[in-house]
Write a sequence for this structure.
């Protein structure tokens, strides 16, 4: 029995060694600016990311497409490096945070984001990203950096042509006529709001807010003074103007019940609320302007007090779409010119490649 066990262990160890050797096999060598190999292991890692996001295993043909995308990516990155293009890590950190904060609707630091996810999900940001996209934070930032550098290179190469991709008048009017129902204003109010966070002393926060409200009502402090003072370190309060559509979603976003928001909309311009309490702060607000619901024409401002019209808004959106599509096609065209035998050597092909892709 002991002899059999030893033989089985040796067989398993040998099998593991074969898999490890397969992982290290070089599939393709890219050599535009420097020599870089793409191994089975690297391809597996990228395929696992796609498989996690798509929720299915990739076929051999799909894995070949991923291999081609890795080759194209390395070619463009090498071309970008040769052209002297780079992006600082600090910019990537900022872009990563902006992307994550946009999803949760808050403005948090990376540590605060990690703490929030630990509290809500019971796992770290690293673990959550690994589960969702197959990469931890560090790996995801490298991926973002490579994508942004590649995009920057394509834009640099095709800058003049990209700028020519502008929505036409006919495209703008067709889009508007096909989407008129989406160009509306809800009933809206423009409010000036002052907020004092509760912090560790809710009573002191409430007293501070009451004092600030009295200063506003008695006109001993102007809105401009509120703005200037709240920016000073240690001011202990926040102040600002908000355009508030009268919807349940908006009420939830500003920490107010929908009934309360409806009640406010029934007040006149100049109305000043009492001291209001939420879970996190005390606040008061005043109505500066009111706007009735309406269907918008092409010449109407897209938002109250905004110089940009619906026409301008549609033009900007369609132009951005056209330019993004052009950049995508330009990237394909650029990689076609780079992906030649002079710069790319396929080390595995045919049946030999198919066997290595069968994991």
């Amino acid at each position: 029995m002991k002899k059999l066990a030893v033989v089985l262990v040796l067989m398993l160890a040998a099998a593991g060694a074969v898999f490890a050797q397969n992982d290290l096999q070089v599939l393709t060598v890219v050599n535009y600016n420097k020599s870089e190999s793409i191994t089975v292991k690297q391809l597996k890692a990228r395929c696992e990311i796609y498989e996690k996001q798509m929720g299915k295993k990739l076929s051999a043909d799909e894995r070949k497409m991923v291999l081609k995308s890795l080759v194209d990516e390395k070619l463009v990155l090498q071309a970008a490096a040769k052209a002297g293009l780079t992006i600082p890590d600090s910019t990537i950190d900022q872009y990563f945070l902006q992307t994550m904060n946009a999803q949760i609707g808050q403005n948090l630091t990376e540590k605060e984001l990690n703490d929030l996810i630990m509290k809500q999900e019971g796992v770290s940001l690293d673990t959550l990203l690994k589960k969702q996209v197959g990469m931890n934070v560090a790996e995801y930032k490298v991926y973002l950096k490579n994508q942004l550098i590649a995009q920057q290179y394509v834009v640099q190469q095709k800058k003049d042509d990209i700028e020519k991709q502008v929505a036409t008048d006919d495209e703008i009017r067709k889009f508007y006529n096909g989407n008129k129902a989406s160009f509306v204003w809800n009933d809206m109010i423009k409010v000036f709001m002052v907020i004092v966070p509760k912090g560790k002393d809710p009573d002191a926060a409430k007293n501070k807010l009451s004092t600030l409200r009295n200063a506003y009502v008695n006109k001993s402090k102007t809105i401009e003074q509120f703005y200037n003072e709240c920016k000073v370190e240690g001011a202990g309060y926040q102040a600002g103007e908000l355009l508030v559509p009268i919807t349940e979603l908006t009420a939830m976003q500003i920490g107010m019940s929908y009934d309360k928001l409806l009640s406010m909309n029934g007040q006149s311009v100049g109305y000043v609320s009492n001291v209001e309490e939420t879970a996190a702060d005390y606040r008061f607000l005043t109505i500066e302007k009111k706007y009735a619901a309406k269907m918008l024409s092409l010449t109407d401002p897209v938002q109250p007090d905004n110089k940009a019209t619906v026409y301008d808004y549609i033009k900007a959106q369609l132009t951005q779409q056209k330019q993004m599509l052009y950049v995508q096609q330009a990237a394909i065209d650029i990689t076609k010119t780079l992906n030649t035998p002079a710069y790319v050597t396929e080390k595995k092909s045919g049946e030999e490649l198919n066997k290595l892709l069968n994991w």
